[in-house]
Amino acid sequence: LTSFSRKKHRARLIIFGARMVSFKAAAAALVTMGAATAWQTNVPSFINTKNLQKSTVASSAFHDQRSRAPSRSAMNMVVTDPTASSGPGGMFTATNAENRRVIPEDVRGRPVMKVVYVVLESQYQSSVTAAVKRINAGSDNMAVECVGYLLEELRDDEAYEQFKKDVEEANVFIGSLIFVQELAEKVVDVVQPQRDNLDAVLVFPSMPEVMRLNKVGTFTMKNLGQSKSVVADFMKKKKQDDGSSFEEGMLKLLRTLPKVLKFLPSDKAADARTFMMSFQYWLGGSPENIESLLIMVGQDYVGPVKESMVGKEKVVAEEPVLLPDKAIWHPVAPSIVFENNQKYFEWYNKEFCPDAGIDPETAPTIGLILQKSHINTKDDTHYVSLISELESRGARVVSIYSGGLDFSGPVEEYFYDSAGKPIVDTVINLTGFALVGGPASQDHKKAASVLKKLNRPYMCAVPLVFQSFEEWQASELGLHPIQVALQVSLPEIDGAIEPIIYAGREGATGRSVPLADRVNLLADRAMKWSALGSKPVQDKKIAITIFSFPPDKGNVGTAAYLDVFNSIKAVLEKLKSEGYDVGDAPMDKEAIMESVLNDPEAKISSPELNVAYRMSTDEYYELTPYAKDLEENWGPAPGNLNSDGANLVVYGKQFGNVFIGVQPSFGYEGDPMRLLFAKSASPHHGFAAYYTYLEKIFKADAVLHFGTHGSLEFMPGKQVGMSGTCYPDRLINSLPSAYLYAANNPSEATIAKRRSYSATVSYLTPPAENAGLYKGLKELKELISSYQGLRENEGRGPAIVNSIVSTAWTCNLDKDIDDLPDLETYDAKNDTPERRDEIVGKVYSQIMQIESRLLPCGLHTVGVPPSADEAVATLVNIAQLDRPEDEIEGLPRVIAASIGRDINDVYRGNNAGVLDDVELNTKIVEASRAAVRAIVDQSTDSEGRIKTVKSVFDDMGSFIGGMMGGSKKPWIKAIEEAGFKVDEKRLDPLVKYLEFCLKQIVANNELGGIMELLNGEFLMPAPGGDPIRNPDVLPTGRNMHALDPSAIPTAAAVEVAQQVVQKLLEKLADENDGAFPESIAFTLWGTDNIKTYGESLAQVLALVGVRPVADSLGRVNKVELIPLEELGRPRIDVVVSCSGVFRDLFINQMNLMDRGIKMAAEADEPLDQNFVRKHALQQAEELGVSLREASCRVFSNSAGSYSANVGLAIENGGWEDESQLQEQFLTRKGFAFNADKPGMMEQQADLFRTALKTVDVTFQNLDSSEISITDVSHYYDSDPTKVVQGLRDDKKKPMSLMADTTTANAQVRTLSETVRLDARTKLLNPKFYEGMLSTGYEGVREIQKRLRNTMGWSATAGEVDNFVFEDANSVFIDDPEMQQRLLDTNPNAFRDMVTTFLEANGRGYWETSEENIERLQELYAEVEDRIEGV
């Protein structure tokens, strides 16, 4: 950027062909053009109103009067924050309102009007300051004292007290965009008592309770959001007419009212007109507009000013100087804005691009969405810098804005050419807000449909609002939680990707400051996404990245419930069919697997995978800018991971332009010392070399991360809002990333989106089927069936009961049935018929729990929709749930009602083992299955698949029904054949719903979704979660998002939580002579709370006795104490361990819990009725801290770290003894969240230990049939049972319980019952292990994973019965044929299985015969030889 020329009197930016190598050139350009004034707060030329009139309508960065501004280097300002403000530790916002205080230097006998303002963002600061200084310098009628507060600053006690003082002394209060509930309440608490004393209160779009403070003469909004009011009615009507949001309504009202007001008597209309004019001036945002606002309000409403004006002529208010509501803006355009894109491109393509060295014919075009208030207030330097960076890379830029908060109109108007063809290749929303509705109310459906029509990648970058640049840099958590909720979570629901922070705030002036490296990264990534849409497919390079976890040859291609190599085959076929160059890639699962797993150069079968590239250390250090930073943890490269001793080794195989690579592992899995570190270590050199290879040597255009999940997104760094030193950001750098993630895991998918900038593509988990019965369990069911027919027969009935008791003992059911009669002494002949029924009922209830338990069968292959049988399994589960919000009753409820029973009573009787109810429940289940199968059969083809879903409710269906003489519908017939007569009309809503769900289940866009991303298109968003609870998760193949964090817990979740808490406390009181537990240790998971809309979060609040309260916009962000009289029991203390993922997604909910627990601790109540207070008082004394500090009960990992590493240690054998695992848990999980210091997770290991010491019960939730307690290591990784036992003074093991809400019949079981149930339905169940073995290599690994996770429960809780290991040994080791199958299919995973059995015995978790151990030892040696090719 070399010169600033004037041609035809127009400012123009000239860029000579060469790319702007660094940000410094852009910064220099800004200085040349006078952007330095953006940081000046006291510019003498403000007095020159002539110049000012011009500057209102010219861009701040380029208006030519600025080139005469006092010289001040902008270099430092762009790259670092000039302020070094530091506030109270742990607060996010440490800026100071004193920077916004202006006091007139010379009053000159004029009356002084004091103005206090509160705003969400700081861009108004410089305009208000300038306006006040102009008045003080130039007005004869008044002087102004002014002070402004950023909303977030009111959290600080000192700032809040000063705010109170300022409002007490003020004449005028102004507020805008006050949308954070707890802070809105603070504003109301201060302003409401002073409202009558204030001369005017002006509140622009904010929460209704703040808007009701408005007062301009006789004009008020006191009824807003309550009963009848003109404004409220207008808003409601606008929302009905066009779905517009609250702010849109305000803006339309603003445009309409002045016209209406002209026809009202002037005295009545004057005050309303003043309010509307004020709003227009405020929206105008420039110093002139703010000056007009203050003069108008001062001379008409402020007492002392009005009095001094008597006999004087009032200053005639200038009309508001407003930019058009929507337009295209460019910093160097000759006219400020363009109202159509034809005129814009005429100037841009013909005049700007040639001078800038951009070829309009071939250049990619980036569409930017801007916030109008930044252009109004000339706070646009961050926009200018990104535009400069994009143009320096040869891109065209179209920057649009909207006056309201609905950007869909300008997108539709300006991003298409006259023929309706999109003109942009990528869109970046720089406002950080949702596309439609901003911070208050959103229309995500409208946004997604507008974006899909445009069909271009949609990035939503985030400017720092509540933090200065330095505060964000220093914060481990990263972006402020309120911003995460408003500007990351909500745009994701629109389908946005890549929440990159690109601008900071300068503390002293509040101006926006571009962040150099972030702006560069954003520009690079936008260019790469654009290239995906334009580059010829045969030239595009795609890197498919697979995972190996734990790192071992038997585990390559790990992904939850995914048949990885079969799925890669499907992707390769799809790429080939679309013209991608896949070279000589084999189209056969085994061959693909072989090419990645085995190095053909190795003379014998080697543990080494295929080596794709050897990177010398010189090349590595040259291409990896952060390599030196890794030496602190790993020493100099190459190290011993992914290394041959001299070079770094990249494993994988290239086919044409497609590379299939194996992502290295964390590297510290087997290192007991590293596992103990409280914070996770950096990636190792091999990990860094892998991503360097993809980006700089293979030169991938995009990377496809294959399955749930790898390690990239869990590397150390900030939680959200990565900086250039965060490892996920450094590793992925400029590579576009598509990430296949299981649809039932939205929480970790969201981490991948936010931390590794990945667009996710959801895939289906295998359909859950009933576990069924086998061996002795099957025999038991047959015996019970015989008993039901012969129970009256005194000869045969008792004999069958004896056989039932004997078989129940053989099946180890004595562990689950407390009073199962003693085998040696019992004879049913001597028992009463009632007691015999009771015994049989309890056994029947147990085996039906096992039979009806859901288990996912086999593994999913990407792009293969479920078969009809699989669809039935899913639909049966969907049909059992009541959905009151949709007015749909569950099928079991309707069937039970047909015989006059309430299904909840049937469940209660069934769970208690009442024989008649167990029988009835079984019949209802069978009738439900038959009915669903009848619905699915209508649409099933001869191959057992569903191509199209035939509806019985459409015209054709009715016609056929008529032809058949109105014969019964197939599902009604099926229910009748099962013995029930139901009301057909009552079932209609459910059947319609099931048809809709069936369409969703068989629609499949997984391969399509992958291709849309690789082709640079917009992938439609979809929620992630449990498809049974929320069928909107289907169809898969869409960009998965979590939910609006402020929406949970929902009212329905609170209701379910209360029921579970009641069952939990009843069970505990029963087993403890009616006494309640004093403290319960809780584990909270991200995915579980997304799936259940916050049920477990609501359980924590219910135990403590606080209730969540929604604000006037329906967002849950406050809590209130339930009085003890209403609660009817003591408040139970809790110690909450949140997963790292929960911490990342729901930090606002951690705030909610912490506030609720502190409320309980501070309540002045008897200690025998408030265990929270009782323990907090004891701990405050013991630790020498305040009661409030001692009542911290919400813990997690440090920011950027995940898990207790207990799972890693157990999976990799890297642990000495249980004390090491317990120490890991305490060290890594002992970081407290404190609502008084929301900006940090503080290490509070002592407080964590003292809180855990009081725990009587440990508790977790199981909410989904797809992921149970032995499927993943997470559940035992965070289980504190033995930790608590070690800490308690009496060393008593706490009771361990699990709530199971996987079905409509929610239950609370002990942990050991749950482990047994899980083992019987999965590890020991032929239906499960044969289903897994049918998928081959991956299947053996899945079986071994369940065995290893079962041993994990022995290590952390000691709740695994000996028979589980004994029976598993019989199934997999004793049977020579099974042994051989496992060995042939995946020898490495089989070796791990043998190791696990030996380890379980060696650590004392499994007692078995010497013979078994010797056999295992021999087997181990055999397998080793086989693997090493001996």
Overall 3D form: globular
What percent of residues are in strands?
5-15%
- The helix-and-strand class reads alpha/beta
Number of helices: 59
Number of DSSP E strands: 38
Return Rg in Å.
34 Å
Largest sheet: 8 strands, mixed
Strand order of the largest sheet: 35-34-33-32-29-36-37-38
Low-confidence stretches: 1-89, 226-236, 238-244, 601-606
Cα separation of the termini: 67 Å
How much helix is in the residues?
Answer: 40-55%
The averaged pLDDT comes out at: 85
Describe what you observe in this structure.
By secondary structure, this protein is α/β, with parallel strands linked by helices. Helix content is 46%, strand content 12%. Strand 9 and strand 10 (337-338) form a beta hairpin. Helix 29 packs antiparallel against helix 30, helix 45 crosses helix 46 and helix 57 (1376-1385) crosses helix 58 (1387-1402). It starts with a strand and ends with a helix. Mean pLDDT is 85; it is low at 1-89, 226-236, 238-244 and 601-606.
Summary, kept brief:
Residues 1-89, 226-236, 238-244 and 601-606 have low confidence and may be disordered. Helix content is 46%, strand content 12%.
What key phrases describe this protein's structure?
1430 residues; alpha/beta; 8-stranded mixed β-sheet; 7-stranded mixed β-sheet; 59 helices; globular
Topology readout:
Elements: E1 4-7, E2 10-13, H1 23-32, H2 49-56, H3 75-79, E3 112-119, H4 125-138, E4 143-150, H5 157-169, E5 172-176, H6 181-194, E6 200-203, H7 208-211, E7 215-216, E8 219-220, H8 230-242, H9 246-261, H10 266-284, H11 287-301, H12 303-309, E9 326-329, E10 337-338, H13 341-356, E11 365-371, H14 372-376, H15 381-392, E12 396-402, H16 408-414, E13 426-429, H17 444-454, E14 458-460, E15 462-463, H18 469-474, H19 481-494, E16 501-505, E17 512-514, H20 516-534, E18 542-546, H21 564-577, H22 589-597, E19 611-616, H23 617-623, H24 631-634, E20 647-655, E21 658-662, H25 672-676, H26 685-697, E22 702-706, H27 727-732, E23 737-742, H28 746-755, E24 758-763, E25 768-770, H29 775-790, H30 796-810, H31 833-852, E26 854-856, H32 868-879, H33 891-897, H34 903-912, H35 915-937, H36 955-963, H37 970-977, H38 984-1002, H39 1006-1014, E27 1021-1023, E28 1039-1041, H40 1051-1070, E29 1079-1084, H41 1086-1091, H42 1095-1104, E30 1106-1110, E31 1116-1121, H43 1124-1127, E32 1133-1138, H44 1140-1145, H45 1147-1162, H46 1171-1183, H47 1187-1190, E33 1194-1196, ...
Parallel strand pairs: 3-4, 3-5, 5-6, 11-12, 11-13, 13-14, 15-16, 18-21, 18-22, 22-23, 23-24, 27-28, 29-32, 29-36, 32-33, 36-37
Antiparallel strand pairs: 1-2, 6-7, 7-8, 9-10, 9-12, 16-17, 19-20, 20-21, 25-26, 30-31, 33-34, 34-35, 37-38
Helix pairs in contact: 1-15, 4-11, 5-6, 8-9, 9-10, 10-11, 11-12, 15-20, 17-19, 21-22, 29-30, 29-31, 30-31, 31-35, 32-35, 32-38, 33-35, 34-35, 35-37, 40-42, 42-45, 45-46, 46-50, 48-55, 50-52, 54-55, 55-58, 56-57, 57-58, 58-59
